[in-house]
Amino acid sequence: MLESFCKEKAAPLVLRLTLGGLCVYHGYLKIMAAGGTTWYPGMPTGWQLFISWGEFAAGLAILLGFRCRLAAGLALAATAASLWWWQGWNILRLPMRSLEQPLLLLIVALVLLFLGAGELSLDGWKGASLSPAKRAGRA
After folding, report:
1. Whole-angstrom Cα distance, residue 75 to residue 24?
2. What is the pLDDT of residues 45-55, one digit of tens each?
3. What DSSP character marks residue 96?
4. What is the model's pTM?
């Protein structure tokens, strides 16, 4: 019973709170720079808007567990795009300690993309994150 609770409810919730909180925080900081348009002067304005608002909106959705897989995919894309923009091919030559935080965010987003929001979420409440077999058992 405890194992089931941890796998189906607690683990996805902890992952969601971690990734969602970080995305909201980072997105908010970027948005405070003139609405998300001036946080990185060398980057085109459209990309800055996409990354800042996408990160913020994805973070809110992940925190609530609303369309969590889609939001995790958006967070994954925004993090990968930011990392690629700043580092490019130089990423292959960076020391691992420089990549720990971005790689951790990418892995957590990938796990949420595969796992879904779990039962303690809006998706779980609606049944959107349940497998077809579990949905059939509920009906």
Report:
1. 10
2. 998 898 899 99
3. H
4. 0.82
